[in-house]
Design brief:
Elements: H1 4-12, H2 18-24, E1 32-36, E2 39-42, E3 60-65, E4 68-72, H3 78-89, E5 96-100, H4 106-109, H5 112-117, E6 121-125, H6 128-132, H7 135-147, E7 163-165, E8 169-173, E9 176-182, E10 192-196, E11 201-209, H8 221-231, E12 238-243, H9 250-273, H10 278-284, H11 296-319
Parallel strand pairs: 4-5, 5-6, 6-7, 11-12
Antiparallel strand pairs: 1-2, 2-3, 3-4, 8-9, 9-10, 10-11
Length: 321
């Protein structure tokens, strides 16, 4: 129900409805960057998702093969997926045949229904089924319908994969090989990476946040650190992260994410070991190596708190053995 004043202003034509306002606002720029002979990506904004940015806060990539286009991740709204398709059409008239999901976080999957409606096959790790069926996923979608309208609305839905993989899997499209490797549970239980040997290109998903602080959530940060070491074993020209610019120096750039996760575990782990309350531990920790990074304000305290809780659980689990 509209508040009486707003209702009156709408009748008088003095207030533009929120949906209309969002639709007439300038759309965030979506620039295609080439990262291999036949491969490209678009880089999301270093922001929190909002109506203004259409939830364009994550990256997506694609590879053009002789038989069609393979997309990696679906972006954060159907409109963004539509815009990505339009950008692909500027380079090729081949259809999008497959969408590979690195994981099932909202900013990477809410565009899926656009690709599915146009005949693409969706591939993801089977561990995402638990999230798909969870109350958390439904509550997140309901909140997004309110917070990200009109880009996320009553017609936006969660889309299951057509093919659920369990372990390392090879996909061939038009003679091009895509190596799908399970690296979760790390950032999420269902994390996979996508390596394209012919392009010397790795899509790392949210294992890797380049040039900004990651959102750790309730991630398995110990496994995440080991998975980052695995990324460095690939023969790559470029590594496309889930957020931030593509890296041509993965040892340095991936090392920053790894160093941050190690710092979280070392500092919060010592606090748990010494029975130091979280607020005191956070205030006394030296964050100077990371505090200038984008997203430090929105992410760091939450990351530290979740790591503190995780290590408490790990310590309790060891004590019960």
């Amino acid at each position: 129900m509209l508040f009486p004043l707003r209702r009156a202003l709408l009748i008088l034509g003095l207030v533009v409805p929120l949906a209309v306002a969002a639709q007439v606002a300038p759309e965030p720029a979506m620039r295609v960057e080439q990262v291999g002979p036949h491969s490209y990506y678009v880089q999301g904004l270093t922001q929190l998702g909002s109506t203004k940015n259409q939830n364009f806060i994550s990256n997506a990539g694609f590879v053009i093969t002789p038989a069609g286009v393979v997309v990696v991740d679906a972006l954060g709204s159907p409109r963004l997926a539509e815009r990505l398709t339009q950008a692909i059409r500027q380079l090729t008239d081949k259809p999008v045949t497959h969408v590979i999901l690195t994981h099932y976080h909202a900013d990477h999957i809410y565009g899926l229904q656009h690709f599915k409606q146009h005949g693409a096959q969706v591939i993801a790790h089977v561990a995402a089924k638990e999230y798909m069926q969870s109350e958390t996923a439904q509550l997140r979608l309901e909140a997004s319908r309110a917070d990200l309208a009109p880009w996320i609305d009553a017609h936006t839905r969660l889309v299951a994969a057509d093919t659920w993989i369990e372990g390392t899997t090879t996909l061939r499209v038009g003679g091009v090989v895509f190596e799908l490797d399970r690296v979760g549970p790390s950032h999420t239980p269902e994390d996979i990476t996508v390596y394209v040997p012919s392009e010397k290109l790795l899509f790392a998903g949210d294992l890797f946040f380049n040039g900004r602080l990651p959102f750790v959530g309730r991630a398995n940060s110990s496994q995440w650190i080991r998975s980052l070491d695995r990324l460095l074993a690939y023969d790559t020209r470029s590594v496309v992260p889930g957020h931030g610019p593509a890296s041509i120096d993965p040892k340095k750039d991936i090392g920053t994410t790894r160093d941050y996760l190690k710092h979280l575990r070392e500092t919060m782990g010592k606090a748990v070991e010494d029975f130091v309350p979280f607020d005191e531990a956070y205030a006394s920790t030296d964050w100077s190596a990371f505090e200038a990074m984008p997203m430090f304000g929105p992410a760091n305290r939450m990351n530290a708190y979740n790591t503190y809780l995780l290590i408490e659980e790990e310590t309790l689990g060891k004590g019960q053995r």
